Amino acid sequence: MSPRIHGLAAFRAWLQSRPQAADAVLAVALVLMGFLQLYIEDVPPELKRYYGVSDATHVALIIAITMSITFRQRYPMTVLCFIVVGEIWISVEHYPATIPDVVAFLLATYSVAAHRGLAHSALGGLLALVSFNTMLVMMPIEVGIITFMMDNALVMGVWVLGRNLRLRRAYFAELEDRAARLERARGTDARAARVEERSRIARELHDVVAHHVSVMTVQAGAARRILDRNPGSAREAMTTIEEVGRTALSEMRRIVGVLRTDRDPERAGGELAPQPGLGDLGELLDHVRETGLSVQLWIEGEARTPSPGVDVAAFRLIQEALTNTLKHAGPQARAWVRLYYTDDDLTVEIEDDGRGTATIIAENGDNPGHGLVGMYERVALYGGELRIGPRVGGGFGVRARFPLEA
C-alpha cells in the first residue's frame, strides 16, 4: 500500500470517529463550491432581471447556512430552523439559489428524520415541506407543475430516507443488544451448569471417600486390636480393607474419568462403569457388616424399578447414612434400612440406636457436614422430601421419599 493511500485511509478513519469534524469538512467544501458558483454566474441572462445581485449579505447568508450543518447531528431541529430562516431571507431578497444552501437544507431535513424520534422528525419534515413550498411561491418566476411536484418529492424522499435509516439503525442496535443478552444468558447458564456439575461431583466424591474410608478405618482398628491374639481374623480384616480400597479407587477413577471424557474420550471410555443403585444394596450392607455394625434390611410393598436418577440417589443416601452411623453411632450400635414401595413413591428409612445425634452436634455445631448437605441436594434434585433428626428412644434417623418417576 502506497503512503498516499494509507494516509487517505487514516484520514477517513479519523473522520468516521469524529462525525462533527466530518460535517465541518463537508460544510467548508460546500462553501467553496458556492463561491465558485457565484464567481461563474451561472444564472441565465434572461433571468437576471428577476433576481437580485449577490452582495456581501448574500455571501454571509450562504456561509452561515452552509456552516450550520456542522452541528446537524447534535442539534438537528435547531439547525433546520436556522436554515429555514436563512432560506426565507434569501427568497425575500430575491437572491439566486446556490448549491450550498440547497444541499444544507436537504441535509438538515434528512438529519431531523435520521437523528430524532418520530414526533420530532415528523414536525421537522412538516416544517421543511411547508417552508420549501413557501419559498417556491415566493420565487420571482413561475414554477411549473412538474417542477413543483418533483421538488416536493425530493424533500419528502430525503425525509423518508432519513427515517428509514434511523429505523434500520435501531433494528441493528436491537439485534446487537439481543445478541449481547443471549451471550450473557449463555454465559450465566454455563456457569450455573459448571456449579451444578461441581456440586454433583463433590457429592459423588464425598459419598465414595467417606463410606469406604470409614469402613477401612473401622476394619484397620479392629485388625490392630486383634492382631496378636487372633492373626486369622486380623488377616481377614486386612483383606477387607484391601477390597474396599480397590473399590474406592475404582469408583474414584470412574468419577474422575467422567471429567476427562471431553478432553480424552478414548482413555476415559474404558474406565467408565454403571452407577450403583438399589440392586447393589446387598453388597453395600455386606461391607458395612464386615466392620462389625449390625445392619438389617426390610423391603415392604411391591418392589418397582425407579428412574435411574432416583435409583442412584436412594443408594447414595443409604450409603451416606450408614457411613454416618459407622462414624458416630459407637461400637455397640445397630442399624436398620427400610424400603417402602407404593404405586407412586419410594420411601427410604435408615435408623440406628447409637449416640450419633450427640456426636454430630458436638462435632459440627450449627454447621451441617457435607454429607447432610449432599443428602438434601440429592433428594431435592428429584422432587423428594427428606427428614433428618434424632430418633425416639435414642439414635439417629434419616427418612426420604422419592417419586418413582423422574
TrEMBL record:
The chain crosses the membrane at residues 21-40, 52-71, 117-136, 143-162. Residues 309-406 form the Histidine kinase/HSP90-like ATPase domain. GO terms for cellular component: membrane. It holds the Pfam family HATPase_c. GO terms for molecular function: ATP binding; phosphorelay sensor kinase activity; protein dimerization activity. The keyword Transmembrane applies. Keywords: ATP-binding, Kinase, Membrane, Nucleotide-binding, Phosphoprotein, Transferase, Transmembrane, Transmembrane helix, Two-component regulatory system. The keyword Phosphoprotein applies. It catalyses: ATP + protein L-histidine = ADP + protein N-phospho-L-histidine. InterPro entries: DUF7134 (IPR055558), HATPase_C_sf (IPR036890), HATPase_dom (IPR003594), Sensor_HK_TwoCompSys (IPR050482), Sig_transdc_His_kin_sub3_dim/P (IPR011712). Its EC number is 2.7.13.3. PANTHER family: NITRATE/NITRITE SENSOR PROTEIN NARX-RELATED, NITRATE_NITRITE SENSOR PROTEIN NARQ. This is histidine kinase.
